[in-house]
Amino acid sequence: MNRTDFMKYYSRLEKGSISRRDFMKLTGLGYAAAVVAACAPATGGASAPVAAANLGTRLELTTWPNYHNLENFEAFTKKTGVNINTSIFGSNEEMLAKLQAGGTGWDVFVPTNYTISTYVKLGLIEPLDLSRLPNFDQASYEARFLAESKVAGDNSLYAIPKNWGSTGYIVRSSKVSEKMTSWKDFFDMTMDKYSGKTTIHDYQMTSIGNALKYFGYSFNSVAPNELAKAEQLLLDVKPHLFAITSDYQPPVRNGDAYIAMAWTGDALQVKRDLPDTEYVIGTEGGEIWEDNWALVKDAPHKDAAYAFLNFMLEPKIGAEETNGHGYPQVDARATALLPDKMKNDPIMYPAQQLLTPLEFGAAVCLTDPNRAELWARVKSAA
Amino acid sequence: MSLPTFLLLAPATLWYLLLLVAPLVIVAVFSFGARAPEGGYAPAFTFEQYSNLPTRITPFINTLKLASLGTFFGVLIAYPLAYFLATRATARLKSILVALIIVPFWTSFLIRTYAWVTIMSSRGIPAILIRLGLVNELVLLNTPFAIVLGIVYNYLPLMTFPIYVSLERLDKRLLEASKDLGANQLGTFLQITLPLSASGLVTGSMLVFILLMGEYLIPALLGGGKIFFVGNALVDLFLQSRNWPFGSAVAMALNFIMLIIVSLYLWLTARLSGEQRQAVSLL
Prior knowledge:
The structure holds 2 protein chains of 2 kinds. Chain A has helices at residues 3-15, 20-27, 29-39, 70-80, 92-101, 116-121, 143-148, 183-190, 204-214, 224-237, 249-254, 264-273, 302-312, 315-325, 332-336, 340-343, 352-355, 363-367, 369-380; strands spanning 58-63, 83-88, 108-109, 160-172, 198-200, 241-244, 259-263, 277-280, 286-295, 358-360. Chain A has 19 helices and 10 strands. Chain A is an alpha/beta fold. The N and C termini of chain A lie far apart (80 Å). In chain A, helix 9 (204-214) crosses helix 10. The longest helix of chain B is centred in the last third of the chain and has 39 residues, at 244-282. Chain B is mostly helical. Chain B is globular. In chain B, strands 1-2 form a two-stranded antiparallel sheet. Helices cover 75% and strands 1% of the residues of chain B. The interface between A and B is medium-sized, with 36 and 31 residues.
C-alpha cells in the first residue's frame, strides 16, 4: 500500500464510511499491531497470546531460595503471557503464619510434606482437579512420596510432589581433617575444635530434629523430656556457632563456616564451586523430605495456577529444574531425562543404608506448641 | 469546630485512629489472650503472657545495651564532625561535606548493611589484618561489635545534623566573651559550647536511641541470628512460633519502655531549653 491509498482510506475512516476495524484490515495496521503485541513483553491483557485468553497476566508464586530454573519461568511467560511474581520464604512456619493471617493473594506455593495435613485442616488448600493437569502421571511417582501429599482417610491429592531431598551437613574437607559421619560429630566438633565455624538452620524442624538425633531420639519427637535435652544441647552449642541461618551458602563460600547444616541442593550447588565440599548424612538418621506444588484455596489466579502447574509437571521441564538447583525429582519420567552424572551423584542419591534411617517430618512438629516455643527461646537466649 | 477545621483535621485524625490507636488496642487485647492450638490468637483472659516475659530478658538487655553503645559511639564520632562543620569548615567545604554525609543514604538501608556483611566476613577486613600480621585470628561478623558498627554507620546523619544545627545557632560572641574573660579553649568548650549544644546532643541521641529500640535489620544481618534485639524476638514469635498473644505482650513491654524513654527525653529537653533561656537572659 502506498501513501496515497493509505490517506484515501484514512479520509474514509474520518468520514465514517468505513469502520475502524476495516481501516486496520485494509491498511495492514491491524497485522502490524498484532506483531508488535506478540513481540512486546506481556504486561496487559491485550498483548497476551490468543491461546492464553483466560489465564490473565499474573501469577503469585511463594517458594524457597535457589529453588527454580528461571529459564523455565521465562518459557512459561512466553508461552502463556502470564508473568510470575515470586516471593521467597525461609521456613514453612512463616508461610503458614502468612496464610493463616489471610489476604496473601498467593496462587501457588511449595509447602513441605509435614505441613500438608495442617493446611487441609485449616481449609487453606483443597484437593487438586487432576483433569486440569494432563501432564501429571500418578504412576511415575513413588507411592511413599505421594502418600505425603495426602491426608489420612482421604484419597484425594492435595498437592503434587515437586522435589525430594535430605537434611545433612556440608563439611569443607580441606579445613576439617577429621572424618565426620554423625550428628554427634556435628555438634561435638562444633563445641570443640571448630568452635565459631559452624552454622545451623534458622528452622525449628531441622535444628531441633537433628539435636534430637544427637541423643538418638526420633527426628519428630515431641516428648517433653527429649525436647528438654535437645534444647539444652542447642543452648550449649549456640555460643560456638558462626550463625543461625538458612541462607548458609554465603558463609560457606566466604570461608567463614567450615561445617553447615544443609539441604541436598545447596550442598550440590556449593560443591560445583568448592570441590572439597562433602555432604554428610548423619548415621543416626535425620530427615528425608518432599516439597509440593500446592494451590491456595482462594487463589486469585486459579486458571493461571493450573496452567503453571501443568507446565512444570512436564518431564522435560522438571529435568531442567533439577539441572539448575540439584534437588532430585520425584517424577521418574523427569529423572530419566537427567544427565548420567547427576543420576549417579552421591549427594543427590545417597547410599541406601544412609537413607533407610531417615524419617519424613511429622505434622505434629508443626502444630506442637512446645517445639515452636523451644526454638524461639533458643534464638532469644544469650 | 467549624466545617473547614473539621475537614482539615479529619485525614490526620483518621490516620492516627486507624494506624496507631486501633493497632495498639488490638495488640493490648491480644496480649491477654492465649495461643490457638494451630498458632495465632485464641480469646482468653490471662496474665500468662506477661508472666512469661522474663524468658525474653536477653533481647531486652541486648537492645538496651547495644543501642546505648551505638548511641554513645555515634556521639563520639558525630560531635567532632558537627563541630567542624559548624565552626571550622568554609561554606564551600561545608556543602561538600554535607553532601558526602547524605549521598550514601540514597542507597537502600538493606544494601548498605549487607555490604558490611562482605566487608566484615573473613575475606574482608580480617583477611587484610591477618596478612599484615597484626592479628592471628579475627572474627568480626556476627559479633556485638558488628552490630554496634552497623548502628553507628547507619544512624550517623541522624546524630550529626541535630548537633550541627545547635552548634550553628550558637552565638559566636559568647566564645569571644569567654576568651576575653580569661578562659582557655577547653574551658570555653566545657562551659559555653557544650552546654549550649546540649539540646542538639540530646535530640540526636534520643532520635537514634528511640529508632534503635525497634531495630530489626542490623542485628538480623550483622548478628547472624544469634544476637537478638526485641524486634527480632518479635518477628520469631509471630512468624515462627505463631504465638500472637506472647508476641503482643512483648510488644506491649517494649512500648512501655519506650514511653519511659520518651518521657525522660521530654523532661530533659524542657529542662535544657529552660536553662538556655536563663543563660541568655542573664547575659
